[in-house]
């Protein structure tokens, strides 16, 4: 497994697994941003080539796909278990009159899980872009080479600075 793939998988797992777990999923979109930035950090740590923001976004997007798959693998069974329990409880309270509403609620649950997975992909790409802006600078060739200094005879020679503003030359501020 090469370094880019390893960084993609680790960043994707950081974005997807905590986003699906019930207690810590409160910060699920922060996990996605952190996963994208982590994938860029891990890649730039082991690779000497410069990381542009576009490359960081691509790496974050790949990590987001891995994270979305991990999220769906964990979130769908959790949603089915907890959703089925809440639907059964609602049907028991209503006396079985709302069976159509229970099916619609289950469909909405699936819809929201897949929308959250798509948002995780987008935010992980954004995290990769931000990570490239933070961790990609200072790499060899990343910002370009500075221009050479000017030659010693640049400007035609003898430059004389102007006299000080409060000087005693008498030509400025004499009032005449």
Total helical elements:
4
Low-confidence region ranges? none
Task: Work out the count of structural domains.
Answer: 1
pLDDT average, as an integer? 80
Q: Please compute the radius of gyration using only Cα atoms.
A: 30 Å
User: Per DSSP, what share of the residues sits in E-state strands of 2 or more residues?
Assistant: under 5%
The shape is: elongated
Helix content: 55-70%
Structural class: mainly alpha
SSE arrangement, N to C: HHHH
Distance from N terminus to C terminus (CA atoms, Å) equals 84 Å
Task: Describe the largest sheet.
Answer: none
Please provide the count of β strands. 0
Can you describe what's shown?
With 176 residues, this protein is mostly helical. It has one domain (3-135). The protein is 66% helix and 0% strand. It has helices at 3-20, 28-46, 53-94, 99-135. The chain is elongated.
Task: Supply database-style keywords.
176 residues, mainly alpha, 4 helices, elongated
In short:
This protein has about 180 residues and is mainly alpha-helical. Helices cover about 65% and strands about 0% of the residues.
Helix and strand arrangement:
Layout: H1 3-20, H2 28-46, H3 53-94, H4 99-135
Helix pairs in contact: 1-2, 1-3, 2-3, 2-4, 3-4
């Amino acid at each position: 497994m090469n370094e880019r793939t390893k960084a993609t998988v680790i960043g994707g797992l950081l974005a997807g697994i905590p986003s699906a777990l019930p207690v810590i999923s409160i910060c699920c979109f922060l996990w996605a941003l952190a996963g994208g930035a982590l994938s860029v950090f891990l890649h730039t740590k082991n690779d000497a080539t410069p990381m542009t923001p576009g490359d960081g976004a691509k790496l974050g997007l790949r990590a987001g796909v891995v994270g979305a798959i991990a999220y769906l693998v964990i979130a769908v069974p959790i949603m089915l278990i907890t959703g089925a329990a809440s639907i059964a409880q609602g049907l028991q309270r209503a006396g079985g009159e709302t069976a159509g509403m229970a099916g619609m609620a289950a469909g909405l649950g699936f819809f929201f899980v897949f929308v959250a997975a798509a948002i995780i992909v987008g935010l992980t790409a954004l995290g990769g872009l931000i990570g490239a802006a933070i961790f990609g600078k200072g790499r060899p060739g990343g910002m370009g080479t500075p221009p050479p200094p000017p030659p010693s005879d640049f400007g035609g020679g003898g430059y004389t600075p102007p006299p000080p503003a409060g000087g005693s030359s008498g030509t400025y501020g004499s009032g005449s």
